[in-house]
Design a protein that fits this description.
This protein is mainly α and about 190 residues long. The chain has helices at about 1-80, 85-115, 120-130, 130-140, 155-165, 165-185.
Length: about 190
């Protein structure tokens, strides 16, 4: 009987040890699997936050560009009015609004540059620069470079034509930005 008790205890100890070892190996595997799963979830959440952040930046720039376009239409209509003190006052008020709206647009473009990717950032910068011809023609009109005060309506007409000629490149730059933003958003570039 003594022999069988020793064997029983030995087998029980071996079985118990094997169970403990198996449990330890399983728990290490489960811990590692849980860590990997947590890393995958965290990476996925970061990618989704980046995607949403970019989407917001893209939409803000598009919205601000449309505000600029509406302002340019107002300016264009005012530039067609005959010379008067009211017209001059309206143009100066529109100039102040243009400066403020441009500052907002520049901020939106910088956020897109920060959020990326490079193609969307480059398109945002090109869109921002597409406002330059509007500003130059409008500023020339305000500074009196039109010559209209001296009876030279040809130069005034040139400023109006320059201003109106800026619409097509401006809207084209917006289309290019929308295309770049859509591609980046759909392809998840850099996420």
């Amino acid at each position: 009987m003594g022999d069988s008790t020793v064997w029983t205890v030995a087998i029980a100890a071996l079985t118990g040890g094997t169970a403990v070892l198996a449990s330890w190996v399983t728990s290490r595997g489960s811990t590692q699997a849980a860590r990997i799963q947590a890393e995958i979830v965290a990476r996925s959440q970061r990618a989704e936050r980046l995607r949403e952040s970019r989407r917001t930046a893209y939409l803000d720039l598009i919205e601000q560009t449309h505000r600029m376009g509406e302002l340019y239409w107002e300016i264009s209509a005012s530039l067609r009015l005959p010379e008067s003190a009211d017209r001059t006052a309206a143009l100066h008020e529109l100039y102040d609004r243009e400066i403020a709206e441009y500052a907002r647009m520049r901020r939106c473009a910088r956020v897109v540059e920060l959020e990326g990717p490079a193609a969307a950032a480059a398109a945002a910068l090109a869109l921002q620069k597409a406002t330059g011809p509007f500003f130059s023609a409008f500023k020339a009109e305000l500074d009196g470079n039109s010559g209209a005060r001296n009876g030279d309506t040809d130069n005034q007409r040139d400023n109006h034509e320059e201003f109106n000629a800026a619409y097509n490149p401006f809207w084209k730059a917006l289309e290019d930005f929308v295309d770049a933003a859509r591609d980046a958003h759909q392809n998840g570039e850099g996420a």
